[in-house]
Design a protein that fits this description.
single chain
Amino acid sequence: MNASNGRRPRKPTNREIEERVEFVAGMLARLAKRGEIHKACAEKWGISWRSTDRYVARAREALRAQAGISREAAREIGIGLLLELIRTGGPRVALMAEARLAEIFGYNAPRLHEVTGRDGRALEIASLSQEERRQRLNLIFGRSPDWTPSVNHPIAASGLGAATAGT
C-alpha cells in the first residue's frame, strides 16, 4: 500500500522494469553493496527491499547472459586472477587476494574446539565445588591453597572475589 494515498502503487511497465534492471545491473557492475542498491532503489522508485531483490536477481541473470560464460567459468577466471595477484601483487594485494580465496573455499571458517579431560570425558573441574576450584587456581598461580583476595585487591574491589573469598 502507498502510505501517501492508502492505495496500492501502480505496477511498473515492461519498459520501466527494463530500466530498473539496467540501473541495478550498473550498480552491481560497480560492485555496489546490497544495502546501497536497496537504498538507491527506495529513493529512486520508492520500492521495497523484496522488489529490489527481484531486480537484483534479474540484473545478475542479465549480466551472466551478457558475459556469455557460465557461473563455473566465471569462478575459474576469478580464482585464476586471485592466484595471479598472490604471485605478482604487493604484500597488501596478495593478502587481500588470499583472504578472498579463503572466503571462496571456506577454509577461514571458525573451528570448533572442545576441551575434554582424560578419555574424552568432561574436565574434572566441572564436578568441583567453587571452593575446590578456588584452591586449584591458587595452586596454579603459586598462591597458598587457602589464599583469598584482600579488600584492596583488584578482584575483591571488582566484586568478583566476594563470592569466593568467604567460601
